[in-house]
Every structure is written in C-alpha cells, then in structure tokens.
Amino acid sequence: MADEPTPVADLPVLRIVHLWPALLNVAGDGGNVSAVELRSKWRGIRTEIVGYEAGDSVPDLASFDIVFVQGGQDVEMRLVALDLPRVAGALREAADAGVVMLPVCAGLQLLGHRYIPNTGETLEGAHVLDLETRGGNQRFMQHAACEVTIDGETSTVVGFENHSGVTELGPGVVPFGRVVAGAGNNGVDGTEGAQRDNVFATYLHGPVLPKNPWLADVLVRRALSRKTGAPVVLASLDDAVEQHNHDVALAKAMRNKGQRTALEPAKLSRAEKG
Amino acid sequence: MTAPKTPPAAPASSVAAAGLPPSLAGKRRTPSLTPRLFAALTAARAAGTASRLLGKGGGTQVPGRIARRIDPNVLATLVGGSGVPVVAITGSNGKTTTARFTAELLRGQGVAVNHNSLGSNLIHGVTSLAVAGADLRGRVAADALVAEVDEGTLLTVLTDLAPRVLVVTELVRDQLDRFGELHALGDALAWVSKQMPADGVVVANADDPLVASFTEEREGRRVTFGLELPGSLDKITRAADTIRCPRCRADLAYRAVYLSHLGDWACTSCGFTRPKPDVAVTAVEVTGLAETRCTIRLPGGVVHNLVIPQAGIHIAYDAAAALAALVALDVPTDHAVEIFSTIRPAFGRVEQIALPDGRTVVLAFSKNPTSFNTTFRALASEGEPKHALMALSNTLVDGEDFAWLWDVDVEGVVPLVQDVVVSGTRADELATRLKYAGVDPACMTLIEDRPAALDAALANVPAGGRLVIVAGYTPTIELRDEMHRRGWTGRLWEQ
Hints:
Chain A is globular. Chain A contains five helices and twelve strands. Chain A has one domain (9-272): Class I glutamine amidotransferase (GATase) domain (Rossmann fold, 3-Layer(aba) Sandwich). Chain A is of the alpha/beta class. Residues 1-17 of chain B have low confidence and may be disordered.
C-alpha cells in the first residue's frame, strides 16, 4: 500500500544536527530547523535536535539523519572556515553515507572546495560538494525561484537570495534547481544550488523550508527512508498558510525577473557615493 | 505659508529662556541667493503646502524631492553653509525617539529647533526639514537643527549637513536586503564618523560593541552613554548581532546583558572593553505600557530622576543618548525632569489611542528582531497582546526580505494571543511565521487590506478591551491614517 502514510508507531526519532547555529544564523534560517521539527511533530514523528558550535567535540555526523548548515555574513563565515578542517572529514563521511543535508548560502559555499574572495585569503571548504565560489562584483539581493525535481516530482522552490559570491558547479554535483527568476549560482548559467546524494544545497533564504513545504517534506521523507531502509509516505498536512506564502513569494520573484536586486542597495562606500 | 508644526514644548512657565547657550551662538552665514536656490525654495514651499492641504502624509518627502531636483546643493547651502549647529542622529533603532528627546531638551533651554519629527529620514525627508526651516532667501531661522538620518543615507547627506554632533544609537541587523551585511554598515559609519571635523563630537552607545569600537578609533571628542546596572535585563538570543569582538572576533564575555547584544561586555582575548559610559542609566523600571522611570547620571555629578510617559528599556537608552547629545553641545539640561515628563510616544511607538466606545488601540511600530522583541517585552508586562493585529508590507522603507521574522521571539508571546488578524502586503509571510510559532491557524485571519483588517481585529475585542497592533513602518502609518479618518486620533503631523 504505497500511498498510505507509514504508521507513526513504526517511525524512529529523527536526529537533527544544526552546525554553528550561533555563527551561521543571519537570515532567519533557523526557521528551516523549526519547519522540519514541526512538520515532523504534526505527524507524530519525534525529533531530537542538537547544536554544534566551533570548538565543540565533533559529533559523528553520519549517525544523524539531517544536517543543517545555514547562511552567515563574511566575518562569521571566516570564523566557521577556521573550525571547518575539524569537521570536514565527518561531513564528507555523512554525505557519502546518504545523510540528508541542507546547506544554505554560506553553508553551500563552505561545503564546496573553496571560497576565493575579492580581497583576503582563500577559505578552504569541506569538499563535500564539487563546486567553487569566487567573490563577485555585485550583490544579488532579490526574490528568486527555481524549478526543482526530486524523486520524479517537480516543484517550484521560492526564497530570497542575498549573496555576492559567484559559484561554479563541477561534474560531481548537479544543480539543485533551474533558475526561474533570480540570479542563482552566478547570474549566468541558470543553475541554482547543488545536489549530490541527499545533500540539497541552495542560495535561497526565506527561510526556504517553511514557505516550501514540499521541500521540507522531501527532506523528512528522504531522512526517514534512509533510516528505515524502506520507502516512507508522509501523512498530508493542511498547508494552506504555507502554500499561500509560497504563491505570494513566487509572484514577487516573477515580477522582479531579470533584475539583480529588489531594492536599490544603500550606498555604503565612498566609491559608490552618488 | 505656515511654519511646520512643532510638538508642544515644555510649559513656558517652567522654562527660563535665558538666551541662547553660548556654545550654540556663533556666526550665521546667509547663503548667496542664486536663482536656482530661490526656485528650489519656492517650489518646495508650494509643494509642501499642497501636499499638506491634500492630506498626503504631512508633506515630509515631497518638498525635499522637488527642491533637490531644482538645486542638488540645496541641503549643503541651507545647512552645511549656514553655521547652524546640527545634531545628526543615526543607528538602527531609537532614532526618532532620541531625536524627539534631543529637540525637546534643547527647546527647554530656549533653543529654537528644527527637527524632522515624523521620522522622515531618507535624503528627501532631511532636505524637506532644511527647506521648511528656511525663508525664501535661504536663511535658516533656527538656532539648531536636529535631524534623524537613516543609517544608509548618512554617507550621502553627511557632507551636506556637516553635523557638530553625530549620535549613533545602536546597530542591529536591519534591512539586510538594502545594507547587505551589518559589518558593511559598521565600516561605512566608521568612515563617516572619521570624516567629521575635528571639533565635531560623536555620541556613542558604549553598550554596543561595534559602535564603541569605531567611534573610539576616531580622533576628536566622544561622549558615551549606556546602562550601568548590577544585573542583566535580557539574555543573548538569536536576535543578538554583535556578540563577538569587533576587533579580534573572539566571543565577548558579558557581565550583564541589557537589550539584545547591548550590555556590559569585554573581550577576553584582546582585552577590548566597554568604555565607561559618560552618561549612565543607573536605574530603570518599566511600569506598564505608558511609563518608564530611570535615573541618569551625567558628567559633573548631575543626576536626573526621570519619569517618561513611554514604555521600554530602550526608552532609557534613548533618553541617555539625548542627554549625551546635550553634553556634547555643552548645553545644560536644567529642565530635563519636567521636559521628559511631557514627551509622549512618537507616533506608533507603543502609542495608546482611545476609541469613542471605550476600547483602546495600542499601536506598536516594530521593524527588526530587536525592536520586535523590545515591543513584545513591553507588551507582555501587561499580559498583551490578547487581541492582535499584525501587519507587514514590502516597500522601499520596510524592505523586501522578512526572513528576520524568524529571529524574533514570537514563540514567547504566542501563549498570550487569543486571536490575531494578519495584514499588509506580506501578510502571507507573517502568517507562516505565526503558525510555526504556535498560533493555531483557526485563531488567525488573513486580511491584506488594512482598513478591513482593522475592522476584523476590532470585532474580536470585547467592550473595554484593548487591541494591540504590531506593524512595520508603512502599515503603521496606514492604520494610523485610517484611525484618523475615523476621528479616533489626530493626524500624524499634528502631534
């Protein structure tokens, strides 16, 4: 009975780890953790959430079901990069083991090979994702949307992008999505984010999961399937609120299509003074 | 042609207008009246009057926009070139209230002040302020100008304003979709403060590590303000921003946390430590939704015990910032106690509006995680909000990206909420946030239209009850305008 929800009593506790929550927390991305936690809870699936901060003893990430690495500003990203060599091996092992991961923005950049800024030292990444990011000369700050296909199902994922890094994908990953509106990885090739195994990396803030319940459920379902070794069907929820949020955000992204930023950025340097 | 309405000053009887404080006296220069300047002033006047007569928001943006189009140097000519002392107030939160306090304190000392009291702080708003205060020959009648300036606009208007005092209230993450990153804003303000003339004074919030850091690097006089309390009033949450050393990036150690990341901090790695505040709040108590009591110590042993008819810990910060601005101007604060006792909230800052039927509306403008949390904390002290109307809209001033809503402690207020109407052009975003904070969607109504939302929200409020409106800048103004149309409150610019 493939279409029946899996009985709750048979489901194990989802173990979630949130990496560097104090450093990588800039754009409300903590809401992604809430989305997975609550959408699980509403279905009677229990979760256990732990945080890992720089300098903590490194947990066995492969023993977790979902790993969150969120967005952060340049300064915090550098601090995480200092701690990253301690964690990189565990991250690669977890990715190879099929652990579900959602790296967002700085998280995406840090899980790649390296980040080469316009000025300053190159940040060595975790080499989880075959991608590389360079500092760009403009900032993409706008509503964005991309088309994502997972497990044969295609959906539009919406959010807000806010980055100046320009990411190029290597052959070891596929794009997370195809840009519908917005700049995506680099504003040029129409790719958004990156995917390999159960790692779904994106530039989309929002936070992305609450207003894209389809994606949130994909992560929960993939994590549970991996854990139980069997296909899982999640009970459906009333997503009227989330779906409306998704639709309004999509309309905003479409209205802004072809732009680089939603607002005129504040002029914060002498060179920009106009 | 009427002068812009100014808020009522302190009772005249209590204020001895003993002449202009010597530090504010000085040579005023009359600008050479070019045909362009004259045209700009005339057109701006006409536009301001027309806008006001049409009831279009008090005419705070239009005159400045028109004047700048005709004469791009109008602000520099009228203000920077005039010799009139300028106090520029910037920062993420507290600009409007601090500017209001500063203007009133100066008026209390007999200083004629021009002040953008409506919070119109982008370049056109600041220009409107200058234009409104000048006659048609470009002479500024005021003794001083108090201008709140948007932190992103400061770089553009600073040279034009040539402020004698620059007040920096605090920097929190706000409008990342405009500013990019907080550190970029910090760097920009650092540069701006260093461009000030050597005899200019920077007034800095000592409790904000980022502000304390860049203002210390500037040469020239600095006056600091902050809280000096024995224990914490807040804790570091995910709304907090600068919790690492701005100099060496190590974690800061807090002896006390007062408001978000503001507190008594020190870096355990490089030793950078909070400067001792020159103007210090040594006691503070928020009593209900309409009163804050605080004791503020000034240099030279002056101590003011203030009762301010506005609620919140941030009010103590704003009061200290304003007093520090007067210290920076070398103007005494003799009448501070009387003056503060009369300054009611700026529009929408936990403003209470009595309805004819006996019910009350509390209008609480909020715009970033820190201001939301501060508002919620003040409301929770009275068990509010029970019946709520929440509204956010995406506009130039409100921003486009509301991800920061997820850093607001909405979860903390949800147990108090019985029903909530969600409104504004981003009602969708708010509704999702509220649902994930634990609001039962059955208790939530989504009505984008603001007047209809107000009706629906009031329908939830029993006789004698209170409706709490927590809204962003634009919906706050729209809802206040709607309440004015219904005759419940004065116009914004008639306060």
